[in-house]
Design brief:
By secondary structure, the protein is an all-alpha fold. It is 61% helix and 1% strand. The longest helix has 30 residues. It is globular. It starts with 14 loop residues before the first helix and ends in a 7-residue tail after the last helix.
């Protein structure tokens, strides 16, 4: 549900729990695959399903453990870099997600297929004369060179990500060949068996999964046979066609996420706690490549939000949780075309509706992973506002835990100081003034906004020291105690661990000189500590 009454977020374990357990590499890569789906204009889990089919083919081919591991990561990461030059793609094709989504239905064998694709997609949505001009430019050379550069850019970005994730060299070699063709018309011109088997399997399953989803087994087999000897390895096509019903069996109904995670090779490889931060930073940087206007945005938001969280008195594990949510808050941007993100003029109502979905997409991607779900709970609400005017759900008030309020203020301030297609970057003081206006209008939380502005180097009004030495967070917890919330409910509402909530309660009782809820309530009322809650 994208609107309506506020929903209650699930309990979010503290960041130190993720550090303690670590996380499986497969989970991180599978989350990335959901982003790939968005960037390709495909429904979520397209890449997961193609990985399932690839592994079924691996069984028929009796691949050894090493080859199976290479195929596993190749199938999940082959097209992960498809969004890095979406800005340029949009200049040629308009809605680049539509153009890439339709590409699976064309062979690109240098004949009528190429012409049909270009006629249908070059300059889509633009006046006829402009489309004609773009078509002539493409066919005369610049467009062809741009297309080749796009494939090269995808590969370079994917290679950088593979290195950041410490995957084996065999995976990198296989990924280098996933834009090849059996007939040698691919990116590097590798022909036939010169392209690794793992790449050839991935090239096949990427297409047949789409045809199966839209037309069933017969459509997938027909597409594979039609491209046998051009795009696809004829022997693989024969194997696939002979066993297609089993290879594609149950694909529409299986739990693709768990099927892929459970199939992870190499003894369920885990990312060490020391490497989690670096892995999340790599994904943040990768997502920000979506548009030239967002480069470095996620890191800046994450660092500012973490600094602000520290100033508000959040525990260290909660500060880490806020920073990590900040790193991943904009993954859902991959699901909105650059024709919208990079538009210089005002957005239409339909375009705004697509923009309003991107936090929801971030949340859905992250919540697919048990290890990253707590981050999704925060990241998916970074555009919500206290008065309910935000999106995508229109949450308000108590539905927005402190971590969300801090992230929302940090994202708002950071975005204002960055250039966008429709405006120049605001100077810091101008951005701060707008944030303060949002506080006065009741959309941003005052305490969170003050902390963000202070962390960004702005002077903020000095607030009187808390009664009895209570910190702002302790005053907030005191308000929840006074309203009869249990320690477990406090932890749930504030997205903190029960241990942290219990520590807050003990500190409050000690500072206020009370020993139970009724006495704490009297203390809060006497000192006027409930008026701002």
């Amino acid at each position: 549900m994208l609107s309506g009454q506020p929903d209650t977020p699930p309990p979010a374990p503290a960041a130190d729990e993720l550090d303690r357990r670590g996380m499986r590499l497969a989970e991180l890569v599978a989350v990335l695959s959901l982003g790939t789906d968005l960037g390709l204009g495909q429904p979520m889990e397209h890449v997961l399903r193609q990985c399932v089919v690839a592994l079924r083919i691996a069984d028929r081919l009796a691949l050894d453990d090493e080859q199976r591991a290479v195929l596993y990561y190749t199938a999940l990461l082959a097209y992960v870099g498809c969004h890095v030059d979406a800005h340029e793609q949009a200049k040629w094709f308009g809605d680049e997600l539509v153009a890439k989504g339709d590409a699976r239905f064309f062979d690109f064998d240098g004949t009528r297929s190429d012409v049909a694709y270009l006629i249908g997609h070059l300059g889509a949505g633009r006046p006829p004369l402009e489309r004609l001009r773009l078509g002539m430019a493409f066919l005369s050379g610049p467009g062809r060179r741009a297309a080749d550069a796009m494939f090269e850019n995808h590969w370079l970005a994917t290679a950088a990500l593979v290195e950041a994730l410490h995957l084996d060299a065999g995976v990198l070699d296989s990924l280098d060949q996933t834009f090849e063709r059996w007939d040698g018309r691919g990116l590097h011109g590798a022909r036939g068996a010169a392209c690794p088997l793992t790449a050839r399997v991935t090239i096949l399953v990427d297409v047949v999964e789409v045809y199966h989803r839209v037309g069933g087994v017969e459509a997938a087999v027909a597409a594979a046979r039609e491209r046998s000897g051009t795009q696809f390895d004829p022997d693989l096509v024969a194997l696939f066609a002979d066993d297609a019903h089993d290879l594609l069996g149950g694909l529409a109904s299986i739990d693709a996420w768990n099927a892929v995670i459970d199939a992870e090779p190499a003894l369920h490889r885990r990312i060490a706690a020391a490497d989690i931060e670096a892995g999340l930073e790599a994904i943040a940087d990768f997502a920000d490549l979506k548009s030239p206007f967002t480069l470095g945005h996620s890191r800046r938001v994450a660092d500012l939000a973490a600094a602000a969280a520290g100033l508000t008195g959040l525990a260290q594990d909660e500060v880490r949780l806020v920073r990590r949510a900040g790193l991943l808050h904009d993954l859902g941007r991959l699901g909105v075309p650059n024709a919208i993100w990079d538009k210089a003029g005002p957005l239409t109502s339909g375009e705004w509706e697509r923009v309003r979905l991107h936090p929801y997409l971030s949340e859905r991607m992250l919540c697919a992973s048990p290890a990253l779900a707590p981050l999704g709970t925060i990241a998916g609400r970074h555009h919500e506002r206290l008065d309910g005017s935000g999106y995508p759900r229109g949450l308000h008030g108590e539905a927005l835990m402190p971590a969300v309020r801090i992230l929302a203020a940090a994202d708002a301030y950071t975005a204002l100081t960055e250039p966008r297609a429709h405006r120049q970057a605001r100077p810091p003081e101008g951005a701060a003034a707008i944030v303060r206006d949002e506080v006065r209008a009741g959309r941003l939380d005052r305490q969170a906004a003050d902390a963000v502005l202070a962390a960004a180097g702005h002077r903020v009004p000095r607030r009187p020291a808390g009664v009895a030495g209570l910190t702002p967070r302790e005053v907030e917890v005191l308000g929840l105690i006074a309203r009869g919330r249990s320690t477990q409910q406090i932890a749930r509402q504030l997205c903190i661990s029960r241990k942290t909530a219990r520590n807050h309660v003990q500190h409050i009782y000690a500072k206020a000189g009370v020993s139970n809820r009724a006495q704490a309530s009297l203390f809060a009322v006497k000192h006027g500590l409930l008026s701002d809650l």
